Every structure is written in structure tokens, then in C-alpha cells.
């Protein structure tokens, strides 16, 4: 699933894309992809990555907590 709008992100986006596509259950890939979606202004897709992380992690994991924190900060900034 290639990320739309990644042209400006160059190498980081390409690496994240390849990692996500090759390792579907890789927690860090989902975390970073969620962060990238927020940077691209697509919070709904970031929330989707969070939901995927919650499915992958049977118990709370650092990646889920980190992405939740970043999404909350994003929402705070957008509401200003």
C-alpha cells in the first residue's frame, strides 16, 4: 500500500513504505507510518495505524503509547 503524497518526503517515506509493505506486523513500521500520515495532514489514516497497532499488541506496547501521544498532540495543535 504505497503512501499517497510522499514525493516531498523522499528517502524516509520510501524506506517506511518498503518496511510497511514487507513486514505487515512490524510495530515500529506502523508507528512511524502513523506519524508520517500526521505530517502529511491525514489524521484518519494515522488513527488507522493506531488501530492496527492495538490489534497487533496483545498487551500495551511502547509503539501504541507513542502513537497515541503523537495523535493527541496533533489534535491539540490543529484545534488552536
Summary of the model, kept short:
The chain is an all-alpha fold and 80 residues long.
What is the string of helix and strand elements?
HHHH
Task: Tally the helices.
Answer: 4
The overall pLDDT, averaged over residues, is 82
Which shape, going by the Cα principal axes? globular
Share of residues in strands: under 5%
User: Total domains, how many?
Assistant: 1
Taking all Cα atoms into account, the compactness measure Rg is 12 Å
Largest sheet: none
Structural class: mainly alpha
Quantity of strands, as a count: 0
Distance between the termini: 32 Å
Which segments are poorly predicted (pLDDT under 50) over 5 or more consecutive residues? Answer: none
Percent helix among the residues? over 70%
Explain the layout of strands and helices.
Elements: H1 10-22, H2 27-39, H3 43-56, H4 62-79
Helix pairs in contact: 1-2, 2-3, 2-4, 3-4
Describe the structure.
With 80 residues, the protein is mainly alpha-helical. The protein has one domain. The chain has helices at residues 10-22, 27-39, 43-56, 62-79. The model has no long low-confidence stretch (mean pLDDT 82).
Quick tags:
mainly alpha, globular, 80 residues
Amino acid at each position: 500500500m504505497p503512501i499517497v503524497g510522499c514525493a516531498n518526503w523522499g528517502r524516509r517515506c520510501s524506506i517506511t513504505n518498503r518496511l510497511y509493505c514487507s513486514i505487515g506486523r512490524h510495530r515500529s513500521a506502523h508507528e512511524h507510518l502513523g506519524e508520517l500520515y500526521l505530517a502529511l495532514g491525514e489524521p484518519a489514516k494515522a488513527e488507522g495505524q493506531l488501530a492496527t497497532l492495538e490489534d497487533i499488541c496483545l498487551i500495551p506496547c511502547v509503539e501504541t503509547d507513542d502513537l497515541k501521544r503523537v495523535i493527541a498532540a496533533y489534535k491539540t495543535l490543529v484545534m488552536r
